[in-house]
Automatic annotation (TrEMBL):
This is DNA mismatch repair protein MutL. SMART domains: DNA_mis_repair (SM01340), MutL_C (SM00853). InterPro entries: DNA_mismatch_repair_CS, DNA_mismatch_repair_MutL, DNA_mismatch_S5_2-like, HATPase_C_sf, MutL/Mlh/PMS, MutL/Mlh/Pms-like, MutL_C, MutL_C_dimsub. This protein is involved in the repair of mismatches in DNA. It is required for dam-dependent methyl-directed DNA mismatch repair. May act as a 'molecular matchmaker', a protein that promotes the formation of a stable complex between two or more DNA-binding proteins in an ATP-dependent manner without itself being part of a final effector complex. Keywords: DNA damage, DNA repair. One of its GO terms (biological process) is mismatch repair. It holds the Pfam family MutL_C. It comes from the Bacteria. The lineage of its organism: Bacteria, Pseudomonadati, Thermomicrobiota, Thermomicrobia, Thermomicrobiales. It comes from Thermomicrobium roseum (strain ATCC 27502 / DSM 5159 / P-2).
Length: 575
C-alpha cells in the first residue's frame, strides 16, 4: 500500500487513544485542568460508569470566550510556551491534548466564565467537529460535560468493563487527586448518589476520612516529615491490621502528582516486612517532594509514570519514612511461636488458650494425644483419592500448622487453609439445601464504608443476601449490618471489610455467588497465629476429612503436606 497522509479525523482518534483510555482517564484530565485553573471546589458527576455522562464543574479562573476554540485544538496549551519550560513544569497538564482528545471521541460541551466577565461562553464539539462559541449565563469557573464516550469508536467502547468497575476506577482516580490536594473540596456523584466528598480544609486527615471513611482513617499513622537531602517524604499509612488483599488503596504522589511507580510501591511494602501476612498489602498515601529538575514527568502521555534522576535515593527515603513510623507504633518482631516436643507429653497435652475460638471447633470433646482422628465411614467415597487417612494429632507449629502422624508418615495441616475449605463446603452445601444459616444481630452494626466498598455492596447485593449478609443503607457512606452468615465467628467488621475489598479486586470464582462464598469462607476461617487446643485441632481435621476436596483451599493452596516414612528415613540417613 502507498504511504498517504491520514485525514484529520483519524489523526484525532488515534491521538485520543494516548490520553483517553477509559472514563477514568477523562475524569483525571478534566480534574487536573480544574486544579491548574486554581479551583477550590471540584464536583464530578458520572452516569453508567462514565460512558453515558461525565460532568466536571469547578470554580477556577475559567476560559475567555475567544480562547475556547483553541482549547479543543491539539498542541494548544496555556501551561508552557517553549520546550525549556518542561524542565520546570509546575502544572498538571502540559501537552495540550486533553480537551482535544476527549472531544474527538465524545460529544463534549464546555461552558466557562472568567470571574470578571458579565456572562460566560459555550462551545459544543461533536466528535472532533467544533460548533460556534455562544454567550450563556454561567457561574464563574468551567463546566465540561462529556456524553456518549467512544460512541464513534465502537471497538474501544466494547472493551470498557462493567459500569460498577469503571465507576470504581473513577473513584480511585478522584481519591488520589483529593489526597494530593487536601485544600481543595472534591465531590463525586455516581448515578445520582454522592460516593466521595472531602471538606477541602487543607488537613490531610479530612481528606483521608473522605477517601477511606472515618473508621479506617482513624487507624492510619501520619508520616512525620522525613528529609533526605532534597527529597522530602510525607503522608499517612495504615496500621497492619487495616491491610488489603490488593494495592488499590495505596497511592504514591510525586510533587502532588499521582504516579505509578513499582519501585516506590515496593519500598513501601518492604517497610511492612514481618508486619503483614503474605498476600496482604498496605493502605495509605505517600507523598514525595523533590526539585523539578530531579524528576521527569514527561515520560508517559497520561503522565502516569515518572523518571527520577536518582531512583534509589528516592526509594530509600520512602522506605525509611514508612519504616520508622511503623516501628514507632508496631512491634518489629511477630509474637514467638508455640514450642513443643514430641517427647514431652506434658507440653503437647496442655490446653492452649484460644485467642478467638470458632464455634465449630470449640464444641469438640476433650481427649488424649493417643486418640485417633477418623471421619465417619459413611462420609467417605470408596473411589475417592482425596480423603485423609487416620491421623493422630501431635501439636501445633508457629500457631499456624498442625502436626499429625498417620500410618504412612507425618502430615502438616495448614489450619487456615483447612478451615477455609471446611467453611466453603458448608456454605455451598447449605446453598444447595435449604439456604445459608444466618445469625441475626441483637443490635445492628453500623459501619462507614469507602466509596469503592459501597459500590461493591450495590454490585453484589443479591449474592451477599443469598450468602446470609443482611446490609441496609444507613445514610451517606454508612451501612447497617443486621445479620451475617452463621460461619462468621470473627470480628464482623473485619470480615465484611475484607470480603468487600476482595470482591472489589475481582474476587475468585466464576459467578458473583461463588466469589462471595469463597471470600466469606476465607475471611471467616481461623487465622495463622491463632493458638488451638488439641481437641480443636482434632475437630478441625475431622471436619476436613469430610470435605469433598480436602487437599486444597478455595484459592488452590494445599491444606495438607505429607512426608512419607521413607522420606523421613532418608532425611535421617536410616536408608
Amino acid at each position: 500500500m502507498p504511504i498517504v497522509r491520514l485525514d484529520e479525523a483519524t489523526v484525532r482518534r488515534i491521538a485520543a487513544g494516548e490520553v483517553v483510555e477509559r472514563p477514568a482517564s477523562v475524569v483525571k484530565e478534566l480534574v487536573e485542568n480544574a486544579l491548574d485553573a486554581e479551583a477550590r471546589t471540584i464536583r464530578v458527576e458520572i452516569v453508567a460508569g462514565g460512558r453515558e455522562l461525565i460532568r466536571v464543574q469547578d470554580d477556577g479562573t475559567g476560559i475567555p470566550p475567544d480562547e475556547l476554540p483553541l482549547a479543543v485544538e491539539r498542541h494548544a496549551t496555556s501551561k508552557l510556551h517553549r520546550f525549556e519550560d518542561l524542565a520546570r513544569l509546575a502544572s498538571y497538564g502540559f501537552r495540550g491534548e486533553a480537551l482535544a482528545a476527549i472531544s474527538a471521541v465524545s460529544e463534549c460541551e464546555i461552558v466557562s466564565r472568567v470571574p470578571d466577565a458579565p456572562y460566560g461562553a459555550r462551545l459544543l464539539v461533536r466528535y472532533g467537529r467544533p460548533g460556534r462559541v455562544e454567550p450563556i449565563g454561567a457561574a464563574p469557573g468551567t463546566v465540561v460535560t462529556v456524553r456518549d464516550l467512544f460512541a464513534n469508536v465502537p471497538a474501544r467502547r466494547r472493551f470498557l468493563r462493567q459500569d460498577a468497575t469503571e465507576a470504581a476506577l473513577i473513584q480511585r482516580t478522584l481519591a488520589a487527586l483529593a489526597l494530593a490536594r487536601p485544600e481543595v473540596r472534591f465531590e463525586l456523584t455516581n448515578d445520582g448518589r454522592t460516593v466521595l466528598a472531602t471538606g477541602g480544609s487543607g488537613d490531610l486527615l479530612d481528606a483521608l476520612i473522605g477517601v477511606y471513611g472515618a473508621e479506617t482513617a482513624t487507624q492510619m499513622l501520619r508520616l512525620e516529615e522525613y528529609c533526605a537531602g532534597e527529597i522530602v517524604v510525607q503522608g499517612a499509612v495504615g496500621l497492619p491490621r487495616v491491610s488489603r488483599p490488593n494495592r488499590q488503596a495505596l497511592f504514591v504522589l510525586v510533587n502532588q502528582r499521582w504516579v505509578e511507580s513499582r519501585t516506590l510501591v515496593a519500598a513501601i511494602e518492604q517497610a511492612y516486612h514481618t508486619l503483614l501476612m503474605v498476600g496482604r498489602y498496605p493502605i495509605g498515601v505517600v507523598a514525595v517532594s523533590l526539585p523539578g529538575d530531579r524528576v521527569d514527568v514527561n515520560v508517559h502521555p497520561t503522565k502516569r509514570e515518572v523518571r527520577f534522576a536518582d531512583e534509589r535515593a528516592v526509594a530509600a527515603a520512602v522506605y525509611e519514612a514508612v519504616r520508622r513510623t511503623l516501628l514507632a507504633h508496631v512491634p518489629e518482631n511477630p509474637p514467638p511461636p508455640v514450642t513443643f516436643s514430641p517427647l514431652s507429653p506434658s507440653v503437647v497435652q496442655r490446653r492452649l488458650q484460644v485467642a478467638d475460638p470458632t464455634r465449630e471447633l470449640s464444641s469438640s470433646r476433650p481427649g488424649t494425644p493417643e486418640e485417633l482422628v477418623d471421619a465417619p465411614s459413611s462420609t467417605r467415597s470408596a473411589d475417592s483419592a482425596n480423603w485423609l487417612p487416620v491421623l493422630r494429632v501431635l501439636g501445633q507449629v508457629r500457631q499456624a500448622y498442625i502436626i499429625a502422624e498417620g500410618p504412612d508418615g507425618m502430615y502438616l495441616i495448614d489450619q487456615h487453609a483447612a478451615h477455609e475449605r471446611i467453611l466453603l463446603d458448608r456454605l455451598l452445601a447449605q446453598l444447595e439445601a435449604r439456604g445459608v444459616e444466618q445469625q441475626a444481630l441483637l443490635e445492628p452494626l453500623v459501619l462507614e464504608l469507602s466509596p469503592v466498598q459501597l459500590a461493591t455492596v450495590e454490585r453484589y447485593r443479591d449474592a451477599l443476601v443469598q450468602l446470609g449478609w443482611e446490609l441496609e443503607p444507613f445514610g451517606g457512606a454508612a451501612v447497617a449490618v443486621r445479620a451475617v452468615p452463621a460461619v462468621v465467628q470473627r470480628s464482623i467488621e473485619q470480615v465484611l471489610i475484607a470480603v468487600l475489598d476482595d470482591l472489589a479486586a475481582g474476587g475468585r470464582g466464576t459467578t458473583p455467588l461463588e466469589r462471595v462464598a469463597i471470600s466469606t469462607a476465607c475471611h471467616s476461617a481461623i487465622r495463622a497465629g491463632q493458638e488451638l487446643s488439641l481437641p480443636e485441632m482434632r475437630e478441625l481435621i475431622r471436619q476436613l476429612e469430610q470435605c469433598r476436596v480436602p487437599n486444597a483451599c478455595a484459592h488452590g493452596r494445599p491444606t495438607v503436606v505429607h512426608l512419607s516414612t521413607e522420606e523421613l528415613e532418608r532425611q535421617f540417613s536410616r536408608r
